[in-house]
Design brief:
heterodimer
């Protein structure tokens, strides 16, 4: 039986030693979960990954939930998630308290004046990267553009956009399949 | 009561985040900056910079930091902010956590679900728009400087923006390195010796 502290420690490492978000964790996860601990096969890992990507929430936490649950049910899921987020939360908290005291500091302010435009650019990059993987073409180009304009210009809440898109995808799939059957 | 609002808001953010950390950033921005106005767009940008350069999932880092900042901005002492930080992370995880367990359990029995595939393929396209909107919302005088007040800062901001975009998109440079370099540029360019 998988030991709980092994589960905790494995996800602790994955959470604490990867910078740059959930997807940066994939190589380390694969090495730890598949090669080292042998908790799942390569195929199971890929399946779990696509599931964790399509479910709502944070990708890395979803991975921890699924792997923890597969090995030790509810307790395993809780332990794996805790391991995954503990270090990042403590680290961020320390920084939050620290920066609060230095937010009026002139050096800190100058540094952040240089960083802010960079952050905006770093958020624009995944837009173009994701457009490739989501198979954006001339025929469905309007979907992300319309979503962006509704939020940006009209102040529509992203939550509403998500709900409409989910319903739209459901109906579109049904209609498409019915037509295919008709032919 | 700020804690109740924080709980409810981050519960909502968690369950409506599809497509990774940046999608969550877009939702946090909409809820925390636009809807509830717990912080300014500039504060949020600074939080993003720190969340991207520290270990851990960006969604969790941003939730933790915004939870802390929202409570402290509302006038509570720092230890209440710490509670806010834990509460935000907990709430953002809670619903996806439960859902993920249920789905794992079901999928251990039967695989592949056509309805899910349909819904997710549309969601993925919309999420791109969500993230684009979040980038557009951050293009502000606060973050870039205004062209009339300080032309130097505005032009330098544009250069940084374009440079970082190309370096990240074309040359796949690490975000951490880019943020550190831009911090140095900011210090050298703006500090009054």
């Amino acid at each position: 039986m998988t030991k709980l502290y092994e589960l905790f420690w494995t996800f602790f490492k994955i959470g604490a030693f990867t910078v740059g978000g959930g997807y940066a964790m994939i190589p380390l996860m694969e090495r730890e979960l598949v090669d080292r601990r042998k908790w799942m096969s390569k195929e199971e890992f890929l399946d779990t990954m696509s599931l964790a990507q399509s479910m709502p929430g944070v990708f890395a936490v979803n991975m921890a939930t699924a792997v923890g649950y597969r090995t030790r049910m509810l307790v395993g899921a809780v332990v794996a998630v805790l391991g995954n987020v503990l270090m990042p939360i403590l680290f961020i908290l320390a920084l939050a308290v620290f920066f609060r005291q230095f937010s009026d500091n002139q050096v800190v302010e100058c540094i952040f004046m240089g960083i802010r435009p960079a952050v905006v650019a770093l958020i624009a990059v995944p837009v173009f990267n994701m457009a490739k993987t989501a198979k954006i073409s001339w025929s469905n180009f309007w979907i992300p553009v319309a979503a962006a304009m509704l939020i940006w210009l009209l102040g529509v809440s992203p939550v509403i956009i998500i709900l409409v898109a989910a319903l739209g995808g459901f109906v579109y799939g049904k209609v498409k399949r019915r037509r295919e059957v008709g032919k | 009561m700020i804690f109740w609002q924080l709980f409810y808001t981050f519960l909502k953010i968690g369950i409506f985040t599809f497509g990774g950390g940046y999608a969550m950033v877009a939702l946090i921005q909409s809820e925390v900056v636009v809807e509830n106005q717990w912080m300014t767009s500039q504060e949020f940008t600074d939080i993003l910079a720190i969340s991207q350069t520290t270990p851990g999932p960006i969604g969790i880092n941003t939730a933790t930091y915004t939870g802390y900042t929202a409570v402290v901005n509302a006038g509570y002492p720092a230890y209440m902010g710490v509670i806010g930080a834990f509460l935000a992370s907990f709430s953002v995880i809670l619903l996806p956590f439960m859902l993920m367990m249920i789905v794992t359990k079901v999928l251990m029995k039967h695989k592949d679900n056509q309805v899910l595939t349909d819904v997710f393929s549309t969601l993925r396209k919309v999420v791109i728009g969500l993230i684009a909107a979040s980038a557009l919302l951050l293009v502000s005088n606060e973050n870039f400087g205004s062209p009339t007040e300080s032309t130097f800062r505005f032009v330098l901001s544009l250069l940084i923006f374009v440079g970082v975009f190309v370096a990240s998109y074309k040359f796949k440079k690490s975000p951490i390195m880019l943020i550190l370099v831009c911090g140095l540029i900011g210090f050298l360019a703006y500090y009054k010796w």
